Amino acid sequence: MIAYGLGAVSNSTKTRGLATFLMIFYNQVMGLPAAWVGLGTALALIFDALVDPVVGQLSDNTRSRLGRRHPYMYAAAAPVAILFFLIWNPPTGLEPLALFGYMMACLLSIRLFDTFFELPSSALIPELVEDYDRRTVLISIRTLCSVVGGLLMMVFAYQVALRELPDGSGGVLAKDGYFSYAMAGATVIFTTILISSAATHRFIPWLRQAPSDRRSGREHLSDIFSTLRNRAFFTIVGSGSLVFLVSGVTGGLTLYVSLFFWELTQAQIATIVTFNAVGGLIGASLASSVSRAIGKKEAAVLGYILGAVAELTPYFARLAGVMPENGDPRVFYIVASGAFVTMTSWAMTGVFLTALIADVVEDNAVRIGRRTEGLLFAADSLFKKIGSSGGPAIAGLILAASAFPIGARPGEVDPQILRDLMMIYIPTLIAIYTVSISLMAAYNIDRSKHEDNVRRLQETEAAAGAAASDAEGPSS
Questions:
Q1: Phi, psi of 170, deg, nearest 5
Q2: Which of 106, 107, 89, 122 shows the shortest CA–CA distance to 7?
Q3: Following DSSP, what letter does each residue of 88-110 receive, concatenated?
Q4: Residue pLDDT, tens place only, 91-106
Q5: Neighbours of 133 (CB within 10 A)
Q6: Fewer CB within 10 Å of terminal CB in the chain, N or C?
Q7: Exposure of 416 by Cβ count < 10 A (0-12 exposed, 13-18 middle, 19+ buried)?
Q8: What is the pLDDT of residue 374?
Q9: What is the pLDDT of residue 476?
C-alpha cells in the first residue's frame, strides 16, 4: 500500500512545482508577462482535461498481458521525468514569443504523459479495495505520500537548489538553481512512478479485465452522460473542481504574497513548507479515524471550512490593522500557524474527496450495470483540471489588475499595489470557498448506501456466474 501510494509523489512533485514556481520563474526570472504565463497554464490544463476522458476510456477497455492500467503507467515514467527537466531549462536568448511557445510545448507534453500514469493509477483504487473504511486507509496513504512528498520537494527547492546565499544572490528569483531543482524532480518522478507500478504489478491477474464485447461510440457516450447525471458525482466533482481552482490561484500567488506582501525570507518560507509537510502528514494520518467517527462527507466539509478560516485570518488581520508590521517575528509565527492548520485540514479533505469519488464507482455501477472506474476518475480529473485551469489565469489577471511590476524586489513594491492585490485576491477566495462547500454538503452517499451498493453488485456478479456455469453444464 505504501509503495503504491508513492506514485502520488510523482504527480505532487510536478503539480506543486508548476503551481509554485512556474509563474515566478517565467514572469520574474525569464521576463514573460504574468498574463501570458497564466493564460498558457490555463490552456495547458484545458488540453489536459480534454485528454482525460480519452485516456480513461482507453484504460477501461485495454486488453493486454499487463492488464488495463499498467501498460500506460510504465510508459509514462521517462517522458514525464524528461519534460519536467526541460520546462525549467529553456534555451537562452529566446524572444518572448518563442519562449512562450517553448513553455507551452513543455506544458502540453508533460500534462499529456502525466495523465497516462495518474489516471490509470488512480483508477486502481476501487479495484484494489472495496471496503468502505479500508478504502479510506489506502487513499490516506496515497494522499499522505502526495502531500509530504510534494512538500519535501519544496523544502529541497528552498533550502538547497534555490537557496538564497548570504550575499543576497541566488534564490527563487535567480535562474541558476533551477537546473539542480529540475534534475532532482525528474529523478523523483521517474523513480516513484516505477516503484508504484511495480508494487501493483503482482495484482494484475486478480484485477478486473476489460470487457470482451465491442461497444459502440453511442454506448460509450451513454455511459458518460449517465455518469454526469449521477447526483453524488456531480456535487463532489463540482466541489473538487472549485477546490482545485482555489489551489491554482493560491499556488500562482504564494511566492508573491510571501516575498512581497509579508516580506518573509526564503529561510522562513522553507520553514513554513516544512511545517506544512508535518501538517499534511498529520492530516492524512487522521483522515481514516475522523471518517469513522463522523463520516466522510461531514469530515470533508468540516476540514475545508477550518482550512479556509485559517488561510484567510492573517489577511483579515493585516487589512484590519491588527497584524504586526513586516519584519516583526510575530508575522512569521502567525502566517506559519495559519498555513499549518490549513494544510492539516485540507490534507484530510483531500483524502475524503478522493474517497467520495471512489464510492461513486459502485453507485454508478448499480445504476448503469457496468463498472467504469477509469471513466469516473477521468471525468473527475477533467472537471478538476478545468477548474485548475482558471487558477493560474485568475492569478495572472490579479497581478495584472494590481499593476504588479516585473523585476520586483521584496520591500520595494508600492504598498498601494500590494493592498490592491489583496483587495482582489481575498474576495475571490471567499466566493470560491462558499460555492465549493455548498456543493460538498449536497453529496448523498453515506456508509449504509455504499455497503448496500457493494452487496447488490456482489449479488449480480454471483447470479451472472451461476448462470454462466449452468450454461456450460449441458455441453460439458
A1: 75, -155
A2: 122
A3: T-PPTT--HHHHHHHHHHHHHHH
A4: 988 999 999 999 999 9
A5: 14
A6: C
A7: exposed
A8: 64
A9: 43
